[in-house]
Design goal:
May remobilize phosphate, particularly when cells senesce or when phosphate becomes limiting. This protein is an alpha+beta fold. Helices cover 34% and strands 16% of the residues. Bound molecules: guanosine-5'-monophosphate (5GP) (2 copies).
Length: 226
């Protein structure tokens, strides 16, 4: 190869390096928080984790990289298996605020492993496994959803509340419109199940959602006791 060939090759290699650091392979995150009362109050029911009944508060479901068109990447790196030893400092917080409600009863590592491998591996360009869990915990604390709702008189008391009021209470507290998802209890009541809050690609700031998930909520929904 002549000198010209080498300079072109060097330019291409430089561009490759530069691009791999400046481009994420997703557009934003959904921070998805679940209401334990709704997860448990369905036909399939639930199991408390081995540490006991979780607090009556929103728990983390996951931090999900997403594309602006509503599609999303998943299971991006089979070589990056969940490694407990990287999150030992976070386990006690995870047990409190990212509790698993799936059966059979377990400590929670299965749920965290699933979320890391399905979703976390798709945001490794911006955060490693430790930061994936740490950022999720910080974001949940910052959202402080239960306080946002109770401040507006919306409580987990099995009563029915306006979807619009729930949405506005959260918007007033965090500054951005959340996605709200419902499920049905065995009596076919529509219940507040999950809240989606959008987060920038750095995984640290709330943003307006580029696209909201379809929530299947009617105009009045039940906020289940837990
Ligand atoms: P479901 O069908 O219960 O809504 O979702 C099943 C799973 O698919 C979720 O737990 C999540 O892992 C993934 N999923 C569903 N919707 C979305 C979405 O809008 N964005 C991302 N990133 N994942 C999703
Ligand atoms: P998704 O693919 O929906 O993000 O992940 C949900 C998976 O995590 C399911 O396989 C589910 O059994 C498991 N899982 C374990 N604990 C929980 C929990 O507390 N809530 C939800 N939604 N899924 C859980």
């Amino acid at each position: 190869m002549g000198p010209k060939g080498w300079s072109i090759l060097k330019l291409l290699m430089f561009q490759g390096l530069f691009l791999s650091h400046s481009q994420e392979d997703f557009d934003f995150f959904y921070l998805v928080l679940q209401w334990p009362g709704a997860y448990c109050d369905t036909k399939r029911s639930c199991c408390y984790p081995t540490s006991g009944k979780p607090a009556a508060d929103f728990g983390i479901h996951g931090l999900w990289p997403n594309y602006n068109d509503g599609s999303y990447p998943s299971n991006c790196d089979p070589d990056s298996e969940f490694d407990k030893s990287q999150i030992t400092d976070l386990v006690s917080s995870l047990k409190k605020t990212w509790p698993t409600l799936a059966c059979p009863s377990n400590e929670g590592f299965k749920f965290w492993k699933h979320e890391w491998e399905k979703h976390g591996t798709c945001s490794q360009s911006v955060m490693d496994q430790h930061d994936y869990f740490e950022n999720s915990l910080k974001l949940r604390d910052r959202a402080n959803l239960l306080q946002a709702l109770t401040k507006s008189g919306i409580k987990p008391d099995d009563k029915f509340y306006d979807l619009e009021k729930i949405r506005n209470a959260i918007k007033d507290a965090i500054g951005f419109t959340p996605g709200i998802e419902c499920n049905k209890d065995p009596e076919r009541n529509d219940q507040l199940h999950q809240i989606y809050i959008c987060v920038d690609t750095s995984g640290t700031e709330f943003i307006e959602c580029p696209i909201l998930p379809r929530g299947r909520c009617p105009s009045k929904l039940q906020f289940a006791k837990f």
